[in-house]
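Tokens help. Consider this.
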Amino acid sequence: MSKNDLLNGHFVAWMDAEKGPESDIVISSRIRLARNLQDISFPYFMNAEKGNKTMQEIREAWRQSEDQLLSSLELLSFDNTSAWDRQILVEKHLISPEHGTAEEAYRGLLLSEDGSIAIMINEEDHLRIQVMLPGLQLEKCYDLAQKIDDALEKRLNFAFDEERGYLTSCPTNVGTGMRASVMLHLPGIAISGQRNRIFQNIHQLGMAVRGLYGEGTEIIGNYVQLSNQITLGQSENEIITNLGLITRQMVEQEKILRKSLQQEMRYQLEDRVGRAYGILTNARVINSNEALTLLSDVRLGMDLGIIKGINPYLINQLVVAIKPGHLQKRSGDEMEAFMRDVKRAEVIKEILLKSKQSEIQSEKEE
């Protein structure tokens, strides 16, 4: 798979639910390392000359690296990447929304062919090394991120202080420079009415709870991003251990609540799931928020065995495929909001019904 595949409808590693532990609840795990080059202005204070110098140093480190993992990545320069394609990268969680608005030649991305590794260049920091995998795999994400970090540090001088650790644009990232996060699907907690209480407890444990696209996004469709809030004073292993522990507690709580709902509200739950599937496979017009909410109900129905014949991988695909950039790329033209709602309904119906038909055909062949 090449960068063109990733920009033209192919989907990325974190979506493959069958390859991730606890993937019925934990959609993905991510480790992000923030790094800056010594003696060059941080991106917030950067001009074109400094930006180009930074890009050149990073490009040379990548080209000359003997590390197989780093050298296998492909470089995208944003002056050669369209606004549509940058939006698609945002929607696939490969770059941040802020990075997606950039088009300068000194901003860009180093990307693996399956999208599991994405290194943002000249975003909030000079380098943001991101590894994202399906299910609960924080340790594996960190192992890959550390290998990339070590390979780059052999050829680049990172801004580092003996007392404070790695220096970053945002004070909350100073220290390890690491942000660990998991994306969770928590309909049981939401339906049972316990979301506010549980999230408040998580905040008190030093964790941040955000929406699907991180900071500044609201929680829609019961998709939640859980991450550490600070990096200073904690080691990488401590951050990963703490987040992993809290995530496993959330997973257990979600499983208990799902079982309770299935036992105590069986008919209401089956009705909710059935209605969601019925709307998604028959609607002619549907907006993004409604679609995410209904897809959450369908995914819950799949996980509980209420709906059969749909691969969870397809739901992960749909969560991204219904976003504006993907819809417009699919149609080959810019669309106003209403026409995106029409196209979104078409895409959802096509993918869900195709999955069902495939399952029926498989049963006939057996």
